Amino acid sequence: MLRIHFTPEDLQNIRISRRPDPLWELVCATCRLPTHQGPLEFGAWRRSVRERLTDDPMSQRAVLALQTLVPPVGYIPDFLTPSSDPEGGLPAALEEVGATPPSRLRHELTRLGTARPLPAWTTALGRPDGRSMRSLVKALELSSRALLEPRWPHVRRAIHDEIDLRSRILLDGGVLALLESLRPLAQWKAPVLEVDYPTHRELHLQGRGLHIVPSYFCWRRPTALADPTLGPVLVYPVTARPLDVTGLRHGGLDRLLGRTRASVLTEVARGRTRTTSEVATAVGIALPSASYQLSVLRDGGLVASHREGQYVRHSATPMGHRLLDGDGERLQETGVGSALGRT
């Protein structure tokens, strides 16, 4: 668990990135690539990336070099994700990586080397001539093209939807409501935000505030910079990721999710939030079955749930709506298409 300690000043200095952070997305995508995590969200992306790398040896070498520094689990050097303004895009971020002081490079690579053996080329990154560092920056650029470009429209859409969601929460309920809305990824226990994290850490903000970064390729649990002296950042997975639904027609949603689960998703997308009991009654299934199906859909990012008094209410996420939007047959049967603006 990561315990982030706030002061009153920190609560007044919370920022949320309005655009995707290209290097955080690149690092998280590098972590996702060799795994089987999120087959629905990332399976097609992984296949397309691997095909692209097979046809592009230069990009393949670049990604392999990056994977040397970015293991799927464990410590990742902080210099790969500088605190550059996402407004500057990838060029500004890469420029900041290239300007990393040699002493910091050596320190972070030494720490990485204690957990896994590093190839000889990493020892040259901190040399004064800067040649090896320029090669690494080029590898980051090539890796970004290979890993991020095919999915970037989805990334931008997901971040846009996420910021829209968090902005509404902030406007309606203020900063504390925003922190509360991070459940189940994090729990606000004033004055500490307890974050689901693979190791135990204490992070004292001490008036520096917190930069919150929603990420498309971040998965299941948030991540953060390892060095507590750097500007505090919390990167967390977006609530929903747009899917490629081309060809999801003629009952394709039933084949993808199963008829019962597809019916549950359709029911919670009818224009207002539904309780678990209402969903069970409408679909014609037992209450425990409805609760289970909703939990599966929620884990997949298709349904969002929140508590109102003694009830838990459910609604379809933007990704859930887009998945329904791809199944024209089900939309005609249920009338959901008109709710989404289709005629």
From TrEMBL:
CDD domains: HTH_ARSR
Protein name: Winged helix-turn-helix domain-containing protein
Transcription regulation keyword on record: yes
HTH arsR-type domain span: 255-332
Keywords associated with the record: DNA-binding, Transcription, Transcription regulation
Entry annotated with the keyword Transcription regulation: yes
Domain of life: Bacteria
Transmembrane segments: none
Gene3D superfamilies from the UniProt entry: Winged helix-like DNA-binding domain superfamily/Winged helix DNA-binding domain
